[in-house]
Amino acid sequence: MTETLEDLRKRIDKIDLELLELLNKRGEIVEEIGKIKEAQGTNHYDPVREQELLEVVKKNNQGPFSTPALQHLFKQIFKASLDLQKVETKKVLLV
Amino acid sequence: MTETLEDLRKRIDKIDLELLELLNKRGEIVEEIGKIKEAQGTNHYDPVREQELLEVVKKNNQGPFSTPALQHLFKQIFKASLDLQKVETKKVLLV
User: Fold this and answer.
1) Closest to A34 measured CA to CA, from A82, A79, A93
2) Quick one: signal sequence residues (chains A, B) (predicted)?
3) Which of A8, A22, A73 sits opposite B76 (nearest CB)?
4) Contact between chains at B29 and A12 (C-beta distance less than 8 A)
C-alpha cells in the first residue's frame, strides 16, 4: 500500500527526534574531547581530523543526498560542535 | 575509567555514520513526499510544516546544544531536503 503524506511525515518526525538525540549525544562527546584538549593545551580546531571525517562521509554515502550536500551539513555540525567547546572553555575561564 | 581521546573519537565516528544513515533515510522519505506534492501540484516549500518541526526540536532538546544552534542545523537539513526534491522534479521534467 502506498503511504500517505501523513504517514511519511510521521516517519520524518521520528527521524528528526533520532537526529536530535544523536546530535546532542555527539555534543556531549565533543565536550569531553574539549576538556581533554583543554588539559593538554592543544588546539580545539583540527583540520586533519575534520578532513578525515568528511572522507568517511564520502566513502559511506549511499544517497539520495549528494556527497557535497552531506559534507556541507557535516561541516555545519562540526562548526556547531566547535562553538560548543568554546562555550565550555569560557565557562571554565569564568569560574 | 576515563576514556581517552581515541575512545571518544571512535564514538564520534560511530555517531557520524548513524547520522549519515539517518539523513539519507530522511532524504528518501522527503523524495517520496516530493512525488506526492508533485502529483497534487502543491508547493514543495511548506513554512508552517517547517515551523512545526523547529518547535519539535525546541520542545525535545535536552542539550548540550542550545536550541538556536540545533534549529540552525535543522534549517540546513530542511534546505538540503528541499534541494533534493528540486533535483527530483528536474529529472521528471527532463524525461
Assistant:
1) A82
2) none
3) A73
4) yes
**DSSP assignment of B34-70:** HHHHHHHT--S--HHHHHHHHHHHHHH--SSS-HHHH
In this predicted model, what pLDDT tens digit does every residue of B33-89 receive, in sequence order?
A: 999 998 999 888 899 999 999 999 999 999 999 999 999 999 999 999 999 988 766
Task: Kindly report the CATH number assigned to the domain that includes residue A86.
Answer: 1.20.59.10
Q: Which residue of B has its CA nearest to A69?
A: B80
Measure in Å the smallest separation between the Cα of A24 and chain B Cα atoms. Answer: 6
Structural domain of residue B68, as residue ranges?
5-94
* Beta carbons within 8 Å of B60's beta carbon, 6+ residues apart: A17, A20
- The ranges of chain A with pLDDT < 50 are none
Phi, psi of A80 (to 5 degrees): -60, -35
Q: Distance between CA A81 and CA A83 in Å, rounded?
A: 5
Question: Quick check: helix, strand or coil at residue B77?
Answer: helix
In the structure grid, which three cell numbers stand for residue B70, read together? 540545533
Amino acid letter, residue A92: V
- Total domains present in chain A: 1
Grid coordinates standing for A2?
A: 502506498
